[in-house]
Design brief:
Layout (H helix, E strand, L loop, with lengths): L2 H12 L5 H8 L3 H13 L19 E9 L4 H12 L4 E6 L6 E7 L2 H10 L7 E8 L14
Antiparallel strand pairs: 1-3, 1-4, 2-3
Helix pairs in contact: 2-3
Length: 151
């Protein structure tokens, strides 16, 4: 990966749906060279896909919640069962295996407190082998995810 690839990645993280010709012009490349480089970055697995960033609030999800989960044990079957249940839940946006006091950190969005109560009762409380759950409500965002710092 060279400096041109780095510039392509930065530009695509800012706005991935722009035409290749526009991106190429911004970077001082021909459209075909830019397209070839993008395809090479995709082929190498550096670009994993493309998606739209949606407004959580415009979609009605007014509450952002982080939930720390501690399991009853670290047995493989316990971890695998928990992770399978998390993958099957559309209410859980993200799940990360973590170090420290909690085993996992989840990210959940809810429309309001009644919706979070539903998610807590129907989804989170039903996750297998949970011994402790600590919930933190995000009050306001300070910095939004803008992509990886490609250098």
């Amino acid at each position: 990966m060279d400096q041109t690839d780095t510039r392509i990645l930065r530009a695509l993280q800012r706005e991935s749906n722009r035409p290749v010709a526009d991106l190429a012009a911004e970077l001082g490349l021909s459209a075909s060279a830019c397209h070839r480089r993008i395809k090479a970055l995709e082929g190498a697995g550096i670009i994993k896909g493309y998606s739209a960033r949606l407004s959580r609030r415009k979609l009605g999800f007014n509450i952002l919640v982080f939930v720390e989960i501690t399991l009853r044990s670290q047995e493989r079957s316990v971890l695998e069962g928990f992770e399978a249940a998390v993958r099957a839940s559309p209410d859980i946006l993200e799940c990360h295996l973590t170090s420290g006091q909690a085993d996992y950190t989840l990210r959940v969005a809810a429309r309001d407190m009644d919706d979070y109560d539903r998610i807590h009762r129907d989804c989170l409380a039903a996750l297998p082998d949970v011994s402790a759950m600590h919930t933190t409500f995000a009050l306001r965002p300070i910095k939004f995810w803008q992509g990886y710092p490609v250098r």
